[in-house]
Amino acid sequence: MINLSLYLKKDLIKLGEELSSKEEVLRRIAELLSGGGYVEDLEKAFSELKRREEIQSTGIGGGIAVPHLLCDIEEPVVGFMTLKAPVEFDALDGKPVDVVFFTAAPNPNLHLRMLARLARLVKSSGIVDRIRKAEGPEEAYEAFKQEEISL
């Protein structure tokens, strides 16, 4: 079983982001990945995130989205953000999104394993509520790690 906490990067945890659309969320993810040195080309990452959303929304319901990127990256990464106000994300349940988990991975096998583990984690633990209530990135980081261990 894959341990997502190994790939969770503190600099990719943002709380209370003021974004007003799905496109702004995807651009912010690309900016975080590029700004942290995880991907070289911000525009390419943004374009790939948008392309993936055009295939099918990554809004999985319950106010959660899981955009993901399969790309040329040295090491896989996981991050997440909360939004100050929910945004429309074409989610499966039709509800807006206020918690966004995201991944980037270098190969399809690892990419799929990370997504499967993340989907299980957000659906069968208290991680989303704990992140929504977190008072800072460090508290959110610790909540993620603790919930994953208990799953």
Write a concise synopsis of the structure shown.
With 151 residues, the chain is α/β, with parallel strands linked by helices. The protein has a single domain, classed as Mannitol-specific EII, Chain A (3-Layer(aba) Sandwich), CATH 3.40.930.10.
**CATH topology term:** Mannitol-specific EII, Chain A
Q: How many angstroms does the end-to-end distance come to?
A: 11 Å
The geometry reads as: globular
Radius of gyration: 14 Å
Find the count of extended strands (DSSP E, 2+ residues): 6
Element-level helix/strand string: EHHEEEEEHHH
Number of domains: 1
Average pLDDT works out at: 95
The unreliable regions are: none
Name of the CATH class: Alpha Beta
- Portion in strands: 25-35%
